[in-house]
Specification:
By secondary structure, this protein is an alpha+beta fold. Helix content is 30%, strand content 32%. The chain has one domain: Electron Transport, Fmn-binding Protein, Chain A (Pnp Oxidase, Chain A, Roll). It has 4 helices and 8 strands, in the order αβββββαββααβ. It holds the Pfam family F420H2_quin_red.
């Protein structure tokens, strides 16, 4: 029997991911008014796919996500996974695509941070709660292979 609280982050995130995936993105794209995507990383230790829901923003054709971990002292597990293997699968609404993720360069981080706090103002508080600089991750569609 689990002693984990019903409203633990693990449980509500799992419910959100399940609803989003099972509905083909019809449910769960908006989370408290903020757009969310599903990202599947490969576990750096297990080698297994790991999927989570994240609030996202846009910068042109690029998707932006924040490795806030709710202001915790440590980076979220999905972030460690994508550092080890930056090729990911992304679902935005009904659309699913392969992508490559990388950290925002320092010279553009502040601008992208402003974009993300405009979408989810709580990121400002999360940053105050931790001594680590919360990373911004840029996700770009993987280039299509040349079939020619």
């Amino acid at each position: 029997m689990s002693h984990e609280p019903i409203d633990s982050p693990t449980k509500w995130v799992a419910r959100h991911v399940k609803s989003y995936a099972e509905s083909g993105g019809a449910r769960g794209h908006l989370f408290h008014g903020a757009p969310t995507l599903l990202i599947t990383t490969i576990g750096r230790r297990s080698g297994l796919p790991r999927r989570t829901a994240l609030i996202y923003g846009r910068d042109g054709d690029r998707y932006l996500v924040v490795a806030s971990n709710g202001g915790a002292a440590d980076h979220p597990l999905w972030f460690h996974n994508l550092l080890a293997q930056p090729r990911v699968k992304v679902q935005v609404g009904a659309e699913v695509f392969d992508a490559v993720a990388h950290l925002a360069a320092e010279d553009e981080r502040l601008r992208l941070w402003e974009t993300m706090i405009g979408i989810w103002p709580r990121y400002t508080g999360y940053q105050r709660e931790t001594s680590r600089q919360i990373p911004i991750v840029i996700i770009e569609r993987a280039a299509m292979p040349d079939l020619g």
